[in-house]
């Protein structure tokens, strides 16, 4: 048993610290395609004070710490270090308050996103963050990765919902920035340093989130377009016609929709095949008015040849059917086998070229490749998954990534739109950030984490401390 790990166990007790084989496999990896790692110890603090004490001890000893939330990340940011401590925030899971008058929710970092959504709904309000892993991801991880999701086009990224944060620095110092005011211009907005930093600068322990009025009405359409160009024109028209009612605009290219709809047996709401498939969701406060607005937009889009075919949902069941294929990526392993996933951002003006190049250039290198494209095109986010059937579990990540990120960089995009950098994208950060920017990131980390113990070797901290 490592002496430091033994000292943590003695200081904090077996209720907080777990060692060796007693550490559940759950904490040995996240959703990234990386081999499980047994950390030196697992720490599950019960409150901010214990987080502070644990970090202070690790800082003094120079022992690495990897913060963990719901472990739903796909970039490896929460992947443990064999010589370090896995710091799970799952027990900081209390919703402290929902202020209906101020429109805020105060909660611990370990609160499950869906739990927070339900708490807001119980107060007649809405938390505008929504991602597919809502039932297992935790608020701390959502904020540490600045997660996006299906409603970014209406409500923005995770950072757009944060009013205040409590953060523990590497040496155990607690930064209490639990601001609940919509307007607070007193000095630097320090919380922005930690949102999206993937735990490299500090550990988020509590948060104050902004809430919105709960829309009482929703209308959903499933549309078929001729191609990406028509889809982008449809997006522009939808923004003009629906305004703030437009809450989702999701696109599935034939590569994704045809394969996944058939392989899953879910089928299509439309009779024919099209060059792109679009889900449009409008939300409002009057059922008849919301549906009528979307129907009117659909009629005008059809008359303008922006849409080849489409259908509006007449029930909640039909809405779920519209979304079923779009929300099927959790079934990749069963339907495709091992995949190489990409979460990139592309300027909308170059989206058609990006999809065409990625879907053609990868098969030029790997003739049997399956390349599937879909995404939240309304916020410039493109998802691509690649599977090489003959490679089995040994998918050639390096060669495929080099191709995709070269195209993304050439088109002025970003290698990460909403899933962070972590371990899997760290070598490609230079495709989206200049050397000067990366140097500044490292300087900020050096100031806040002088010993480099927080998530070493990930994201912009590419040099693992010795």
UniProtKB/TrEMBL annotation:
Organism: Pseudooceanicola algae
Cofactor(s) annotated in UniProt: FAD
Name the record gives this protein: Putative FAD-linked oxidoreductase
Enzyme nomenclature, EC number: 1.-.-.-
Signal peptide range in chain numbering: none
Key word Transcription present: no
Gene3D superfamilies named among the record's database cross-references: 3.30.465.10, 3.30.70.2190, 3.30.70.2740, Uridine Diphospho-n-acetylenolpyruvylglucosamine Reductase, domain 2, Vanillyl-alcohol Oxidase, Chain A, domain 4
GO biological process, one term: respiratory electron transport chain
Keywords of this entry: FAD, Flavoprotein, Oxidoreductase
Protein family: Belongs to the FAD-binding oxidoreductase/transferase type 4 family.
Molecular function GO terms recorded: FAD binding; oxidoreductase activity
Source superkingdom: Bacteria
């Amino acid at each position: 048993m490592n002496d430091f790990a033994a000292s943590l166990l003695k200081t904090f007790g077996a209720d907080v610290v777990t060692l060796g084989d007693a550490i559940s496999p759950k904490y040995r990896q996240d959703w990234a395609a990386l081999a499980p790692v047994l950390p030196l110890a697992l720490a599950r603090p019960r409150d901010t004070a214990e987080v502070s004490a644990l970090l202070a001890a690790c800082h003094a000893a120079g022992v690495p710490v990897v913060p963990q939330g719901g472990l739903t990340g796909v970039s490896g940011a929460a992947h443990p270090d064999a010589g370090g401590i896995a710091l799970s925030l799952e027990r900081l899971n209390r919703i402290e308050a929902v202020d209906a008058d101020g429109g805020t929710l105060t909660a611990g970092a370990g609160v499950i996103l869906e739990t927070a959504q339900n708490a807001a709904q119980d107060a007649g309000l809405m938390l505008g963050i929504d991602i597919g892993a809502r039932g297992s991801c935790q608020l701390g991880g959502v904020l540490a990765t600045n997660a996006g999701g299906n409603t970014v086009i209406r409500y923005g990224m995770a950072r757009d919902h944060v009013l205040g944060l409590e953060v523990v620095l590497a040496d155990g110092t607690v930064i209490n920035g639990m601001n609940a005011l919509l307007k607070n211009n007193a000095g630097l907005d320090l919380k922005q340093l930690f949102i999206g930093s993937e735990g490299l600068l500090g550990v988020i322990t509590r948060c104050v989130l902004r809430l919105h009025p709960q829309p009482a009405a929703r209308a959903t359409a499933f549309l078929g377009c001729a191609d990406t160009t028509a889809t982008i024109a449809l997006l522009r028209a939808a923004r003009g016609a629906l305004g703030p009612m437009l809450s989702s605009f999701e696109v599935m290219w034939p590569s994704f929709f045809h394969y996944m709809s058939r392989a899953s047996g879910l089928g299509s709401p439309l009779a024919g095949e099209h060059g792109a498939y679009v889900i449009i969701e409008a939300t409002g406060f009057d059922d008849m008015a919301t549906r009528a607005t979307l129907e009117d937009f659909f009629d005008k889009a059809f008359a303008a040849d922006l849409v080849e075919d489409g259908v509006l949902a007449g029930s909640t069941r039909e809405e779920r059917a519209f979304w079923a294929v779009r929300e099927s990526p959790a079934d990749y392993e069963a339907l495709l086998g091992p995949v190489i996933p990409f979460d990139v951002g592309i300027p909308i003006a170059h989206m058609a070229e990006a999809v065409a190049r990625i879907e053609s250039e990868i098969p030029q290198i790997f003739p049997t490749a399956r390349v599937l494209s879909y995404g939240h095109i309304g916020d410039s986010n493109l998802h691509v998954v690649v599977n090489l059937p003959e490679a089995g579990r040994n998918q050639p990540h390096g060669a495929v990534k080099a191709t995709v990120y070269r195209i993304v960089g050439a088109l002025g995009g970003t290698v990460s739109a909403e899933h962070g950098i972590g371990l899997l994208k760290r070598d490609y950060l230079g495709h989206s950030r200049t050397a000067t920017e990366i140097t500044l990131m490292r300087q900020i980390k050096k100031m806040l984490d002088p010993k480099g113990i927080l998530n070493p070797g990930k994201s912009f901290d590419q040099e693992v401390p010795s």
